[in-house]
Design a protein that fits this description.
The complex is a heterodimer of chains A (116) and B (107).
Chain A: E1 3-7, E2 10-12, E3 18-25, E4 33-39, E5 45-51, E6 57-59, E7 67-72, E8 77-82, E9 91-99, E10 102-106, E11 110-114
Parallel strand pairs in A: 2-11
Antiparallel strand pairs in A: 1-3, 3-8, 4-5, 4-9, 5-6, 7-8, 9-10, 9-11
Chain B: E1 4-7, E2 10-13, E3 19-25, E4 33-38, E5 45-49, E6 53-54, E7 62-67, E8 70-75, E9 84-90, E10 102-106
Classes of the chains: A mainly beta (116), B mainly beta (107).
Chain lengths: 116, 107
Protein backbone atom coordinates (compact mmCIF):
# COMPACT_ATOMS: atom_id res chain seq x y z
CA UNK A 1 0.00 0.00 0.00
CA UNK A 2 1.25 3.46 -0.89
CA UNK A 3 1.33 5.57 2.24
CA UNK A 4 3.15 8.23 4.22
CA UNK A 5 3.44 8.22 8.00
CA UNK A 6 4.67 11.31 9.83
CA UNK A 7 6.14 11.38 13.31
CA UNK A 8 8.15 13.68 15.54
CA UNK A 9 5.63 16.34 16.41
CA UNK A 10 5.01 17.56 19.92
CA UNK A 11 5.23 20.48 22.31
CA UNK A 12 8.37 22.59 22.11
CA UNK A 13 9.36 25.87 23.73
CA UNK A 14 9.91 29.00 21.65
CA UNK A 15 13.43 28.96 20.24
CA UNK A 16 13.58 25.18 20.36
CA UNK A 17 14.10 22.64 17.63
CA UNK A 18 12.23 19.62 16.34
CA UNK A 19 12.80 17.11 13.56
CA UNK A 20 9.82 15.66 11.76
CA UNK A 21 9.99 12.35 9.93
CA UNK A 22 7.85 11.01 7.11
CA UNK A 23 8.25 7.32 6.38
CA UNK A 24 7.11 6.19 2.95
CA UNK A 25 5.95 2.77 1.88
CA UNK A 26 4.87 1.46 -1.50
CA UNK A 27 7.02 3.88 -3.49
CA UNK A 28 10.53 5.33 -3.53
CA UNK A 29 10.90 8.77 -1.96
CA UNK A 30 13.98 9.68 -3.96
CA UNK A 31 12.20 9.04 -7.27
CA UNK A 32 9.60 11.70 -6.55
CA UNK A 33 9.48 15.28 -5.39
CA UNK A 34 8.38 15.43 -1.78
CA UNK A 35 6.92 18.37 0.10
CA UNK A 36 5.96 19.51 3.55
CA UNK A 37 2.70 21.42 3.96
CA UNK A 38 1.44 22.89 7.22
CA UNK A 39 -1.90 24.04 8.54
CA UNK A 40 -2.18 26.30 11.56
CA UNK A 41 -5.24 25.72 13.75
CA UNK A 42 -8.34 26.93 11.94
CA UNK A 43 -6.33 28.19 8.98
CA UNK A 44 -5.65 27.15 5.40
CA UNK A 45 -2.92 25.06 3.84
CA UNK A 46 0.56 26.57 3.60
CA UNK A 47 3.24 24.98 1.44
CA UNK A 48 6.52 24.84 3.35
CA UNK A 49 9.28 23.07 1.43
CA UNK A 50 10.13 20.66 -1.38
CA UNK A 51 12.99 18.31 -2.19
CA UNK A 52 13.25 17.17 -5.77
CA UNK A 53 14.45 13.77 -6.96
CA UNK A 54 17.76 15.35 -7.92
CA UNK A 55 18.19 16.75 -4.43
CA UNK A 56 17.38 20.41 -5.06
CA UNK A 57 15.44 22.06 -2.26
CA UNK A 58 13.18 25.10 -1.99
CA UNK A 59 11.48 26.80 0.91
CA UNK A 60 8.65 29.17 1.56
CA UNK A 61 9.92 32.63 2.50
CA UNK A 62 8.32 32.19 5.93
CA UNK A 63 10.70 29.34 6.84
CA UNK A 64 13.78 30.03 4.73
CA UNK A 65 16.91 29.79 6.84
CA UNK A 66 14.91 28.24 9.69
CA UNK A 67 13.80 24.85 8.31
CA UNK A 68 15.78 22.22 6.40
CA UNK A 69 14.27 19.46 4.29
CA UNK A 70 16.22 16.27 3.67
CA UNK A 71 15.75 12.59 2.98
CA UNK A 72 17.45 9.30 3.81
CA UNK A 73 17.22 7.08 0.77
CA UNK A 74 18.25 3.98 2.73
CA UNK A 75 15.30 4.49 5.06
CA UNK A 76 12.94 5.80 2.37
CA UNK A 77 12.17 8.65 4.75
CA UNK A 78 11.71 12.41 4.40
CA UNK A 79 12.67 14.83 7.17
CA UNK A 80 12.04 18.40 8.20
CA UNK A 81 14.48 19.95 10.66
CA UNK A 82 12.86 22.93 12.32
CA UNK A 83 14.99 25.36 14.32
CA UNK A 84 14.33 28.61 16.20
CA UNK A 85 10.69 27.71 16.46
CA UNK A 86 8.12 30.45 17.06
CA UNK A 87 4.51 30.43 18.11
CA UNK A 88 3.46 31.04 14.51
CA UNK A 89 5.03 27.72 13.52
CA UNK A 90 2.32 25.92 15.51
CA UNK A 91 0.48 23.76 12.99
CA UNK A 92 -0.28 20.31 11.74
CA UNK A 93 2.57 19.34 9.41
CA UNK A 94 1.81 17.06 6.47
CA UNK A 95 4.24 15.42 4.10
CA UNK A 96 3.02 14.85 0.56
CA UNK A 97 4.20 13.16 -2.62
CA UNK A 98 4.42 15.42 -5.64
CA UNK A 99 3.69 14.15 -9.12
CA UNK A 100 2.93 15.73 -12.50
CA UNK A 101 -0.63 15.41 -11.18
CA UNK A 102 -0.07 17.44 -8.04
CA UNK A 103 0.22 16.21 -4.45
CA UNK A 104 -1.45 12.83 -4.72
CA UNK A 105 -0.47 11.11 -1.47
CA UNK A 106 -0.59 12.81 1.94
CA UNK A 107 0.39 11.63 5.38
CA UNK A 108 -1.97 11.83 8.31
CA UNK A 109 -0.16 14.84 9.74
CA UNK A 110 1.78 15.50 12.93
CA UNK A 111 1.00 18.34 15.31
CA UNK A 112 3.68 20.80 16.35
CA UNK A 113 2.88 23.16 19.20
CA UNK A 114 5.30 25.94 20.07
CA UNK A 115 4.52 27.30 23.50
CA UNK A 116 6.13 28.02 26.85
CA UNK B 1 6.13 34.81 -6.46
CA UNK B 2 2.74 33.94 -7.93
CA UNK B 3 -0.20 34.54 -5.61
CA UNK B 4 -3.37 32.46 -5.64
CA UNK B 5 -6.78 33.84 -4.77
CA UNK B 6 -10.14 32.11 -4.46
CA UNK B 7 -13.72 33.28 -4.41
CA UNK B 8 -15.97 33.09 -2.62
CA UNK B 9 -14.33 32.42 0.74
CA UNK B 10 -17.43 30.51 1.80
CA UNK B 11 -20.77 29.50 0.39
CA UNK B 12 -23.91 27.78 1.49
CA UNK B 13 -26.02 25.87 -1.02
CA UNK B 14 -28.83 23.35 -1.09
CA UNK B 15 -28.45 19.67 -1.88
CA UNK B 16 -28.63 19.28 -5.64
CA UNK B 17 -27.43 22.80 -6.40
CA UNK B 18 -24.67 23.56 -8.87
CA UNK B 19 -21.71 25.11 -7.08
CA UNK B 20 -18.85 27.01 -8.70
CA UNK B 21 -15.60 28.10 -7.05
CA UNK B 22 -13.13 30.40 -8.77
CA UNK B 23 -9.35 30.42 -8.43
CA UNK B 24 -7.09 33.07 -9.92
CA UNK B 25 -3.31 33.10 -10.30
CA UNK B 26 -1.46 36.43 -10.33
CA UNK B 27 0.54 35.21 -13.34
CA UNK B 28 -0.06 32.53 -15.94
CA UNK B 29 0.51 28.95 -14.85
CA UNK B 30 -0.76 27.26 -18.04
CA UNK B 31 -2.75 24.32 -16.64
CA UNK B 32 -0.58 23.44 -13.60
CA UNK B 33 -3.52 23.83 -11.26
CA UNK B 34 -4.80 21.30 -8.75
CA UNK B 35 -7.89 21.26 -6.55
CA UNK B 36 -8.01 19.61 -3.13
CA UNK B 37 -10.89 18.79 -0.84
CA UNK B 38 -10.40 18.83 2.92
CA UNK B 39 -13.26 17.58 5.05
CA UNK B 40 -13.37 18.72 8.69
CA UNK B 41 -10.63 17.02 10.70
CA UNK B 42 -9.34 15.11 7.68
CA UNK B 43 -6.32 15.06 5.42
CA UNK B 44 -6.50 17.01 2.13
CA UNK B 45 -7.45 14.91 -0.87
CA UNK B 46 -6.50 15.55 -4.49
CA UNK B 47 -9.62 16.02 -6.61
CA UNK B 48 -8.48 17.48 -9.90
CA UNK B 49 -5.11 18.06 -11.53
CA UNK B 50 -3.95 19.70 -14.74
CA UNK B 51 -6.89 22.07 -14.20
CA UNK B 52 -9.48 19.65 -15.53
CA UNK B 53 -8.41 16.01 -15.04
CA UNK B 54 -10.34 14.10 -12.41
CA UNK B 55 -8.22 12.09 -10.01
CA UNK B 56 -9.08 8.40 -9.97
CA UNK B 57 -12.05 7.61 -7.74
CA UNK B 58 -13.41 11.16 -7.59
CA UNK B 59 -17.13 11.41 -8.38
CA UNK B 60 -17.98 12.74 -11.82
CA UNK B 61 -20.08 15.57 -10.35
CA UNK B 62 -16.76 17.34 -9.79
CA UNK B 63 -15.20 19.11 -12.75
CA UNK B 64 -12.54 21.70 -13.38
CA UNK B 65 -11.78 24.13 -16.14
CA UNK B 66 -9.52 27.01 -17.03
CA UNK B 67 -6.03 27.81 -18.18
CA UNK B 68 -3.52 30.58 -17.71
CA UNK B 69 -4.74 32.63 -14.76
CA UNK B 70 -8.42 31.79 -14.28
CA UNK B 71 -9.78 28.46 -13.12
CA UNK B 72 -13.04 27.04 -11.81
CA UNK B 73 -14.11 24.05 -9.79
CA UNK B 74 -17.71 22.99 -10.31
CA UNK B 75 -19.84 20.58 -8.33
CA UNK B 76 -22.76 19.80 -10.63
CA UNK B 77 -25.11 18.56 -7.92
CA UNK B 78 -24.04 19.27 -4.34
CA UNK B 79 -24.25 16.31 -1.97
CA UNK B 80 -24.09 16.29 1.84
CA UNK B 81 -20.73 14.51 1.72
CA UNK B 82 -19.27 17.44 -0.24
CA UNK B 83 -19.24 19.64 2.85
CA UNK B 84 -15.57 20.62 3.00
CA UNK B 85 -13.04 23.33 2.31
CA UNK B 86 -11.69 23.39 -1.22
CA UNK B 87 -8.22 24.65 -2.08
CA UNK B 88 -6.58 25.37 -5.40
CA UNK B 89 -2.82 25.05 -5.80
CA UNK B 90 -0.28 25.95 -8.45
CA UNK B 91 2.26 23.24 -9.03
CA UNK B 92 4.23 24.30 -12.10
CA UNK B 93 7.21 25.25 -9.95
CA UNK B 94 8.10 26.10 -6.36
CA UNK B 95 6.71 27.76 -4.35
CA UNK B 96 3.65 25.48 -4.66
CA UNK B 97 1.24 28.08 -3.35
CA UNK B 98 -2.25 27.20 -2.21
CA UNK B 99 -5.26 29.45 -2.46
CA UNK B 100 -6.88 30.57 0.82
CA UNK B 101 -9.70 28.04 0.52
CA UNK B 102 -13.45 28.05 -0.02
CA UNK B 103 -15.65 26.58 2.67
CA UNK B 104 -18.74 24.84 1.33
CA UNK B 105 -21.67 23.82 3.47
CA UNK B 106 -25.30 22.83 3.10
CA UNK B 107 -28.06 25.38 3.44
Amino acid sequence: EVQLVESGGGLVQPGGSLRLSCAASGFIVSSNYMSWVRQAPGKGLEWVSVIYSGGSTYYADSVKGQFTISRDNSKNTLYLQMNSLRAEDTAVYYCARGRPSGFDIWGQGTMVTVSS
Amino acid sequence: DIQMTQSPSSLSASVGDRVTITCRASQGITNYLAWYQQKPGKVPKLLIYAASTLQSGVPSRFSGSGSGTDFTLTISSLQPEDVATYYCQKYNSAPFTFGPGTKVDIK
